[in-house]
Amino acid sequence: MGDRLTASAPTDAPGHNPGRRMGLREQNKLRTRNAIRQAAITLIAEQGYSGTTVEQIAEAAGVSHTTFFRYFPSKEQVVIGDEHLRVEAQNIVESMPPGLSHFDLIRQLMTELHRLTVDDPWVGNPLRMQLIRTEPLLQKTFQVESERIISDMTQLIADYLGIPPDDFRLKVFLDAVAGVTFHLATELDDTLDMPQLETTLRAIDLLEQGLPLR
Fold first, then answer.
1. What angle in degrees, to the nearest 10, is found between the helix axes of 126-134 and 136-161?
2. Which residues, at least 6 apart from 95, have a Cβ–Cβ distance to it below 8 Å?
3. pLDDT for 84-131, tens place per residue?
4. pLDDT exceeds cutoff 90 at 60
5. H or E segment at 206?
6. Cα atoms in the 13 Å half-sphere on the side-chain side of 141
7. Contact 176, 152 (CB under 8 A)
8. Cα separation, 109 vs 176, whole angstroms
């Protein structure tokens, strides 16, 4: 395999169009989603995760029980769900310049996703991340979601690198990246000397170097 998984890259991948304006229906759906999330995080801060019910969240958000489940399949998904990042990740990969190595591709993807996280007050909400780190069910769900995002990205990354999506080397590579990013996202906190993105990129550098211990 050498030091690259790469072969050829698409040259006509579509880019993301950040200038597109949301329609009224989309705006209303976003407001409802945000209202449910805000109600959830407020209630959980006051009475704990296990002490907060779906019914309480729906009532505080001013929506029906049925409406809640139209937006979120479960209580944990209110906290975990950041489905737009999955779409954005696809857009990022599709707009990458051709010829990047698999490590450079991941580094750029992580950097762009971090930028989106910083710009999104919900995704980067400190209480949300604290809950994910401390609630076992949320930790497990977050890991499943992280693995799902990686799985969704496998085909795109394989297409970019010009290799089959079931390539064993690609699977091992993505599993290693998913493992280290999940660990850093759930176990590291704001007391670190380095920001989380810098720490993540340093970990990816170590993977690329073969995990030297000296």
1. 100
2. 13, 14, 15, 16
3. 666 777 788 888 999 999 999 999 988 988 887 776 767 767 788 788
4. yes
5. helix 196-208
6. 18
7. no
8. 15
- 3-class SS string, the chain: CCCCCCCCCCCCCCCCCCCCCCCHHHHHHHHHHHHHHHHHHHHHHHHCCCCCCHHHHHHHHCCCHHHHHHHCCCHHHHHHCCHHHHHHHHHHHHCCCCCCCHHHHHHHHHHHHHHHHHHCCCCCCHHHHHHHHHCHHHHHHHHHHHHHHHHHHHHHHHHHHCCCCCCHHHHHHHHHHHHHHHHHHHHCCCCCCCCHHHHHHHHHHHHHCCCCCC
pLDDT digits (tens, 9 = 90+) for 165-188: 999 999 999 989 888 887 777 665
pLDDT averaged over every residue in the chain: 80
- Is the pLDDT assigned to residue 4 strictly greater than 50? no
Kindly state the greatest CA–CA separation across the chain: 58
Check if the beta carbon of residue 63 is closer than 8 Å to that of residue 36.
yes
Tokens at 3, concatenated: 């030091």
Half-sphere exposure of 33 (CA within 13 A, CB side): 18
Q: Quick one: DSSP state of residue 20? A: P
How far, in Å, CA of 131 to CA of 154, rounded? 28
